[in-house]
Design brief:
cell outer membrane, signal, two-stranded antiparallel sheet, alpha+beta, SusD_RagB_dom, globular, two-stranded antiparallel ribbon, 13 helices, single chain
C-alpha cells in the first residue's frame, strides 16, 4: 500500500501498519475460556514494535486539536471515519451518533445527553505533588462532589489535575469546548442543569465528541445534533502506547516509559486554550522516572491509556485484553453503585460479559449456521 493516499480518508500503509500493531498486541495476550491470561507471546510483541515503527506520524502540539474542527486528517490521525457538511445533501453527511451525547438540558444543543463520565473517571485525573497519577488512591475521594447554588462544582482545596480532564469532561462551572463567555454560541460554561438526569446518572458531561454550536461543522435537525468532525479509530498516541506496552512486556521498561512520557509531555503542554475558568494553578503533570520495574511500568501504561483515551471507547477492550476486566469493573461498581442507585444490582461476570451478545437477527440470517458453529442453543 502507498505511504499516503491522494484521496483523503482512504486506507494507506500507516493505517494498515497501525492496525497490524493493534492486532498483534491483542493476539499476544493468550487467554483461557474465562479470559485469564495464560501466556504472553513475545514474538507477537516484537511484531507490535516492528509495525509501530513502520507508522509515520506525530502528536498534535495541543491535545485539544484532536477534538476540534479544523484538525481532521492531521499529524496525529492515522485512521478515521470521514464526515462532511454543506456537501449538497440535505443536512450533510454528519455524525448524528456522537451528537446524541451532546448536553441535554440547554437550548444550545438538543437530544440526548448520553455517554456520561463517572465520578471514578473524573477522579482518575488527580495528580500528586510530582504530577503523577494517584494510581491506587485516586478514587478514595471525589474531586468535585458538591454542587453549589450557582450549579457549579468547586474544586476541593489542594488538589491538582492532569489538564486532559478539561479536554475530556464537561464539569459544572468550567468552560465547555474552551468557551467561558457568552458569545454567538451562548453561555458555554457547563451547568449542572445540562446533564440528562443528574439525580440518576450524575452531572459530568461528554466533551470530546462535541463541538460548539457556532462551529461551521455543526448542524441541528429538530432536536438532534450532528457534526462533520471525524471520528478517530487510531491516532498516533495509540501507536506510541501500543509500542510502549509491548516494550514493557518484553522487559525493555525504560524504553516503554520514555514513550509514555512523550505522551505526557504533550498533555503538559496542552493548557494554552481557555480551560480552567480563571484558576491558573490547578494543573500539575509530570513524567515517570526511569528505573521502574516491569510491574510498575505496566501499571503506569494501563493508567495512561485510561487518561489519554478517556471517553473514546478503548477502555473496556483494554481491560479484556489484559485479563483484568472482572476485578477492575467489579471494584469500580462496588464504589460507583453507592453514588448512583441505578447500578445497585450491577455485576460483571467473568467468562460471559467480555462479549456483547450476538443479535438474534444475525443468528436467524445465517439459517442456523451460526448457532451450530458457535454452539448457541
Amino acid at each position: 500500500m502507498p505511504q499516503s493516499q491522494e484521496e483523503v480518508g482512504r486506507a494507506d500503509k500507516n493505517a494498515a501498519a497501525a492496525y497490524l500493531a493493534k492486532l498483534r498486541l491483542y493476539q499476544a495476550y493468550e487467554q483461557n475460556d474465562t479470559h485469564q491470561v495464560t501466556n504472553i507471546n513475545m514474538s507477537h510483541l516484537q511484531e507490535v514494535v516492528d509495525y509501530a515503527d513502520d507508522v509515520t506520524g506525530a502528536l498534535e502540539a495541543d491535545y485539544g486539536n484532536n477534538y476540534l474542527d479544523g484538525f481532521d486528517n492531521g499529524l496525529e490521525s492515522i485512521w478515521a471515519a470521514q464526515f462532511s457538511i454543506n456537501d449538497g445533501t440535505t443536512v450533510g453527511r454528519v455524525s448524528f451518533v456522537t451528537g446524541l451525547n451532546s448536553p441535554h438540558g440547554t437550548g444550545l444543543y438538543g437530544c440526548c445527553g448520553f455517554h456520561l463520565a463517572s465520578h471514578n473517571m473524573v477522579n482518575a485525573f488527580k495528580t500528586d505533588a510530582s504530577g503523577l497519577p494517584l494510581l491506587d488512591t485516586f478514587n478514595d475521594s471525589n474531586i468535585f462532589d458538591v454542587v453549589d447554588g450557582n450549579g457549579e462544582t468547586p474544586l476541593a482545596s489542594g488538589i491538582t489535575l492532569d489538564p486532559r480532564i478539561d479536554h475530556t469532561v464537561g464539569i459544572p462551572g468550567r468552560p465547555f469546548k474552551y468557551r467561558n463567555t457568552v458569545n454567538e454560541a451562548g453561555d458555554m460554561i457547563y451547568n449542572f442543569s445540562w446533564a440528562r438526569d443528574p439525580g440518576v446518572y450524575g452531572y459530568f458531561g461528554n466533551m470530546k465528541e462535541q463541538q460548539a454550536p457556532d462551529c461551521s461543522c455543526y448542524v441541528k435537525e429538530g432536536p438532534f445534533v450532528g457534526t462533520s468532525k471525524n471520528i478517530e479509530f487510531i491516532r498516533y498516541a495509540d501507536v506510541l502506547l501500543f509500542k510502549a506496552e509491548a516494550l514493557i512486556q518484553m522487559n525493555q521498561v525504560d524504553d516503554g516509559i520514555g514513550l509514555i512520557n512523550e505522551v505526557r509531555r504533550r498533555a503538559a503542554a496542552s493548557t494554552q486554550r481557555q480551560l480552567d475558568a480563571g484558576a491558573s494553578d490547578i494543573y500539575n503533570i509530570g513524567e515517570y522516572p526511569m528505573g521502574m520495574s516491569k510491574e510498575e511500568g505496566l501499571k503506569a501504561l494501563m493508567f495512561e491509556r485510561r487518561l489519554e483515551f478517556g471517553m473514546e471507547g478503548p477502555r473496556f477492550f483494554d481491560l479484556v485484553r489484559w485479563g483484568i476486566a472482572e476485578p477492575v469493573l467489579n471494584a469500580y461498581l462496588d464504589v460507583e453503585k453507592t453514588r448512583k442507585d441505578f447500578l445497585s444490582s450491577a455485576k460483571f461476570t467473568a467468562g460471559r460479559d467480555e462479549y456483547y451478545p450476538i443479535p438474534q437477527r444475525e443468528i436467524d440470517f445465517t439459517g442456523g449456521y451460526m448457532s451450530k458453529t458457535l454452539g448457541i442453543n
